[in-house]
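Problem: given the chain below (161 residues), write out its structure.
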Amino acid sequence: MKLHKIMKKSTFVISLLFIHIFTPVQALEVPESVIEKYVQMKLPKSIAGVNISSAKIKLLNADAKLCAVARPKIIPKDIPFCATLTPTWRQETASLLGFNMQLDSLDATGLSEKYIENTKKLVNQTILPSLDGIEIYKADNFIGKRVSDIKIKPGKIDLVF
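Solution.
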């Protein structure tokens, strides 16, 4: 009788092991740090005479926030800004693109109201439209072309197969 119970338990454990081993991966996690390094490489260094630097990305629930520092030639001051964007997977290119950029914040402390308004216009009408559709991550084609969906979560993106 004991042997029968041991055999049943062994068969169950072996079955679970085979299921675990032979079930394909359902999602691949891409950490925020990997995406941020990619953004730092891909972000243009200058747009319409405005130097862009110190890019950071923060993954939230279903969207992301891109923060950077703008330095217009006409204003000798670094102006940090952040914009919300919608990450979208492009299966044909195995890449993650950022769309629908909306300015969240702009720190122009110390500037006159006129300069602040002009800087907001510059960011909203020139910089963000130039960045719309920017590639923020690229996977290997073998993996990326098999991705069927993405799940944006705080600190990571899951590539779903």
